[in-house]
From TrEMBL:
Stated name of the protein: HNH endonuclease
Natural source organism: Ktedonosporobacter rubrisoli
Keyword set, alphabetical order: Endonuclease, Hydrolase, Nuclease
One MF term in the entry's GO annotations: endonuclease activity
Start and end residues of each HNH nuclease domain: 73-124
InterPro entries associated with the record: HNH_5 (IPR029471), HNH_nuc (IPR003615), NA-targeting_endonuclease (IPR052892)
SMART domains per the UniProt record, alphabetical: HNHc
């Protein structure tokens, strides 16, 4: 059960495991944003068994300053950016490789703009050649991930992202009422 931690200003900070949640609760550092979830979690803690299917969102009681984080083009970040889809043929798979659009042997760098997710067949077909030499093309032009860090890690947890968006809409509705 991943737990979304919000800053006091409601900015997403991180996703933590349930064990960390128990520590933050015992130190009285966080508050639940949903009373139903709070009661379910408290019952689970009393039973010493945390098995919660609903997304859990907690808010820090004190605001934390968050430094800007620069995202690097790592394998997991490239796969996340490309939605685990081969950028040559469109095949979706968890077993993709990372390909240099301009091969390293031809001066290509390990940058956001030069790295793409590729299935093994397309990567083997392309080899160390340029796209035009093998008559291949990219489905999307590779770009750096431009989202802030908070939005970036929410991409990995679609249920948490949905719960956070619902929470923001309900908070916005209660503020305007």
């Amino acid at each position: 059960m991943p737990v979304l931690v919000l800053n006091a200003s409601l900015q997403p900070l991180s996703v933590i495991p349930e064990r960390r949640l128990v520590v933050l609760l015992s130190k009285q550092k966080v508050a639940f944003v949903d009373e139903k979830v709070r009661s379910l979690i408290e019952e689970s803690i009393a039973a010493r068994r945390l098995e919660q299917e609903r997304p859990v969102i907690v808010q820090l009681l004190a605001n934390v300053r968050v430094p800007r984080v620069i995202l690097h083009p790592t394998r997991s970040n490239i796969l996340l950016r490309d939605d685990e889809t081969c950028q040559y043929c469109g095949k979706r798979s968890r077993e993709l490789t990372i390909d240099h659009v301009i091969p390293r042997s031809r001066g290509g760098q390990g940058t956001w703009e030069n790295l793409v997710a590729s299935c093994k067949a397309c990567n083997g077909k392309k080899g160390n050649r340029l796209l035009k030499e093998v008559n291949m093309h990219l489905l999307r032009q590779p770009r750096p991930l431009t989202q802030e860090y908070a939005g970036f890690f929410l991409l990995r947890y679609p249920k948490l992202r949905e719960a956070y968006e619902e929470f923001l809409l309900s908070a916005q509705g209660s503020m305007s009422a």
